[in-house]
Amino acid sequence: MGAGRAMGIFATLKAMVERDGRAVLVTIMDVRGSSPREAGTRMAVRADGAFSGTVGGGTLEWQVLAEAQALLSAGEGRRMRSLDKALGPDLGQCCGGRVGLMLERLEREDLVWLNDLATPPAGGGRVSIGIPHDRGGFVRRPASDEEALGLPAGAASRFLPDGRLLERLEPVNPSLYLFGAGHVGRALILALAPLPVEVVWCDSRPDAFPSHVPQHVVLRRDAEPEAILAGAPDHARIVVMTHSHALDLAIVSTALAADRFAYVGVIGSQTKRARFVSQLRQAGLDERLIESMTCPIGIPGVEGKEPAVIAASVVAQILQLPRQVGSRLPVVKGHRRLG
Q1: Residue 213 CB coordination number (10 Å)
Q2: What integer is the mean pLDDT of 278-301?
C-alpha cells in the first residue's frame, strides 16, 4: 500500500483508523552512526499488515512490522513500544549504526487529533506537540508558534523536560524553480514528480504547459522572471531552459546577482557557458558568482541527449545538494540587468 504525494503520514493514519479502528505509527526517534533512514522518518502500519512509508527496508523493517502487528493484536493495555536496534549485531545489516524507534497504536479516540494534523502544512515544517497518554503514546495537537521554538532548526523531534514531545509534522522540502516548458522541461517535471521537491514551473508563452502536471507543481505564467525570482525562498534551486538564449541569460544574471540560491543552472554547451561568462563579466557581476553558475547542467559522464536522459542527469545533480544550505548570503551591489 502506498500513499500519494498529496497525503501526509497523519492523513494516511487517519484513513487507516477510520477503516480498521486502529493502526500503528512507527517513528525513528534517534540515529547513531550509519542508518538507511534519518531521524523523523515515519511509517504507518495497517491492521491487515499493509503499510505506507519505510524505515529502511531489510531485516530492520521486517522486525518492525512484526512488532507493529503484535502491538495491534494486543489488548487494551500499553499502546506504545520502544525499540533500540544495532543494525550490525542485532540485524545482520552492514550500516553499522543504531536506531531508536517508537511504535504507537492509534485508535478511534485518536481521530480527534488526527483530523487536526491530517492536512500537510503549506511549505512543510509545521510542528506538533504531543502530551503523554496514560497508556503510552501521545495525544498530539499543532504546536503554537512559541512552543514550536523549542524544536531546534533541522531537528525532527525533541522531548521536553516535562515529557511532552515536539515533532516536525512534514519535512521542509527544497524548492526548485524551473524556467522553460519545452521538451526537456517537461521531462524534468516527470523526473521530479515522485521526489520530495516543491516545484514552481515558469513559462509565459500561451499553451506552454501540458494539460496535466503533478500535484506538487505550481504553474507560473503570470509574472516576469525577475518578479518570480524575487519571491523565491532562499536556497531554492534555479534551473533555466527557456526557448531564448537572451531570456536564459537575463534569468541567470538575476538569479546569480541575488547571491542566495543553492543552485543556478542553465542548459547548454561549454560554448554557451563561455559566452554567458563573458557577458556576465561585461555586466560587472562578481567573479565568484559567475563561477557558481552550473553550465552545462547534469552530472558528468551521462551520455545521451534525449530529454529523459538529460532530466535524469539534472535531477541526480540537484539531489547531491544538501536539503538545507547555510544562512542567507549578502546581495551583490552594482549589478545591471542583462537582456
Answers
A1: 17
A2: 95
Residue 78's pLDDT is 77
**Cell 498530539 sits at which residue?**
140
271 contacts: CB under 8 Å, gap ≥ 6: none
Q: Examine the pLDDT at 216 and tell me if it is beyond 50.
A: yes
Distance CA 47, CA 50 (A): 7
State the Cα–Cα distance between residues 231 and 229, nearest whole angstrom: 5
**Max CA separation in the chain (angstroms):** 75
Find where cell 483508523 sits: 17
User: 264 near 229, Cβ under 8 Å?
Assistant: no
What's the burial of 292, exposed, middle or buried (CB within 10 Å: 0-12/13-18/19+)?
middle
CA proximity to 38, closest of 23, 46, 48, 28: 28
| Domains of the chain, first to last | 9-168 (no CATH), 175-319 (3.40.50.720)
Cis omega before residue 233 (within 30°)? no
Residues belonging to the chain: 339
Burial class (CB in 10 A: 0-12, 13-18, 19+), 291: exposed
Q: Which three cell numbers stand for residue 84?
A: 533500540
What are the pLDDT digits (tens) for 241-256?
A: 999 999 999 999 999 9
End-to-end alpha carbon distance in the chain: 51
What are the phi and psi torsion angles at 86 (to 5°)?
-90, 120
